[in-house]
Structures are given as C-alpha cells and as structure tokens.
Amino acid sequence: MPTVEVTDLKDDDFLLDVREDDEWQAGHAEKALHIPISDFVARYGELTEAAPQDGRVHVICRSGGRSAQVAMYLVQQGIDAVNVDGGMQVWAAVGRPVVTDEGQPGFVL
Prior knowledge:
alpha/beta; 4 helices; 29% helix; 17% strand
C-alpha cells in the first residue's frame, strides 16, 4: 500500500478524511473532504467530483487503518491514492492545525 508521511504533505495536497462524523466534528484538517468510511461506496461520486483530475488523493483517518482500506480501494479503481501514515494522531502530534467546522481549534477523537 503506498503511504506518505504527514510531514511530507503540502498545504495544497488533496486530503480525504474517512473518519466517522463524531471524529470529524471533534476536529479535522481545514481543507479536507469528509466522507466517512461507512458511507464511502454510496458517496464515491462526491470524491470523483472534488478530487483533482490528475492529482493524488491523500487518505487519512485516526491512525491509518481505515484510510489504508479506502486508499487500496481507490487504487483498484485506477485513482492515484496514498494512505497518510499515522493519520490524524500524527497530524496533530507534529503540530498541523486541527479545526472544527466553525474554524475553532479542535482535537483528534
């Protein structure tokens, strides 16, 4: 499974957060697209509409397990996708911003 380190992500990289709603509401990366893994197949079209045409999809969850599953699925669909190693736990640990929908500081649930 292709992976990328949080520290290697650039601010304009496309990020797909597959955590569940309660996790997202507690805190997330500011520009991420949120599609919970439990809804992913039904909402797949939202990803294909939002993702950059020839760009990479960086998939993130809390620690990397669920995002690895989604990234593997996307690769099987012919999409350039990678798993973000360590997920939102590492994202927060290295000091990347975690926000709520209101733009306030959030936390990783």
